[in-house]
Amino acid sequence: MIANRTAGGIVLMHLGGYPTRNALPAMLTGLRAAGYSATSLSALYR
């Protein structure tokens, strides 16, 4: 996922499964290290 990032891209995630939930911290760390930030859709559209 991190390798396929693009500027302005949106990652939609459903955290109901353990694999996704377990991968999230590493994904966020990698994206933040690359200069990206996380937000919610509601914050994005304010």
Structural summary, described in words:
- This protein is mainly α and 46 residues long.
- It has helices at residues 18-33, 41-44.
- The longest helix is centred in the middle third of the chain and has 16 residues, at 18-33.
- The protein is globular and about 30 Å long.
- The mean pLDDT is 80.
Task: Summarize, please.
The protein has 2 helices and no strands. It is an all-alpha fold. The longest helix is centred in the middle third of the chain and has 16 residues, at 18-33.
Radius of gyration from the CA trace?
A: 11 Å
Q: Average pLDDT value?
A: 80
Q: Strand-residue fraction? A: under 5%
Shape descriptor: globular
Tell me the number of strands.
Answer: 0
Oligomer: single chain
User: Helix-strand pattern, N to C?
Assistant: HH
Largest sheet: none
Count up the helices: 2
Distance between the termini: 26 Å
Any low-confidence stretches, pLDDT <50, length ≥5? none
> What is the helix fraction of residues, given as a range?
40-55%
How would you classify the helix and strand content by structural class?
A: mainly alpha
